[in-house]
Amino acid sequence: MKNSMNTAHKLKIQELLGKEIISCIVKGEGAVNVAYEVKTKDGGTYVVKQEREDKQFEPQNNLVTEARVAKQLNGLPLSVLTSRVVFISENPSMYGYEYIQGDLLRNVWGALSEEEKIDVCKSLGTFHADIAKKFTKEMSRACGIEISESTGLHPEIVSDYNRLIVDTTVPNNLIGLVKQARRMFDDTAKESVFHFIHNDAHHENILIKDKKISGIIDFGESMYGEVAKEFSRYIRDFPNHFQYIVSTYEQASGNKLSHERLVSNALVSGFVDIVEEYQKGGEYRLRAEKSVEVYKTLLGM
Fold this sequence. Notes:
Blueprint: H1 7-17, E1 21-29, E2 33-40, E3 45-51, H2 63-74, E4 85-89, E5 94-98, E6 103-104, H3 105-108, H4 114-134, H5 137-143, H6 155-164, H7 172-187, E7 194-197, E8 206-209, E9 212-216, E10 223-226, H8 232-237, H9 242-253, H10 259-269, H11 271-280, H12 282-298
Antiparallel strand pairs: 1-2, 2-3, 3-5, 4-5, 6-8, 7-10, 8-9
Helix pairs in contact: 4-9, 7-10, 11-12
């Protein structure tokens, strides 16, 4: 994996920005893309996402599609700031947007007061209601993202589920719980709600400044699909607070969601992660066991 952008790409960015670059450093490395922080001579700061030549898998959306979505979103009157795209390049595959100041929610969550946590969650609920109402199905189609009205689980999740429920190293109580959750999810199919979703909303894509949300980034997994997918990571990461996100979303969007469907989806979707932590042993196993108890409580089991 290269830690620096090659000269040709730097010159291409400089041309697209129309500004002289004074520094370009790696900000983050993912399995598919590399993010660079670019500073220009006039004092500007930008993030450039570039596709890796050795990417490990094909993402939901390529970078050009992701950039189109971000650009469309930034033109809407949303309650939370999203990436302001300043250029899009198909060859090489990359795009740039203005840097948004803030720390990852993951890093600051523990330092927030209870009132501040609730306020952040309510802001997230409003944001998801905003994009549901304002980013239409027609916009989704025009940007080239997936349009799915399936009420089923993602094929990869189904594959993991089928493999793990027959794995003799997985605790029987966990298998039983996840089977119940799968039935609950299937039984609530009629309560599905569809619209544009971020589809990768979690504490590493939410930026916080002065204890408020300063921006939401990374729409590489965005799609038009079922909203249950949207809240899955919130339930896993913030089991004691996700209800503030959901209730605010419901109030702002006018959509009524099934608590059972949301939580059962989160459990089945996160099944493989729980098993992996359990099998690592030690503190990881304790964390997995705690997650199981939390899900049992949320599902009333």
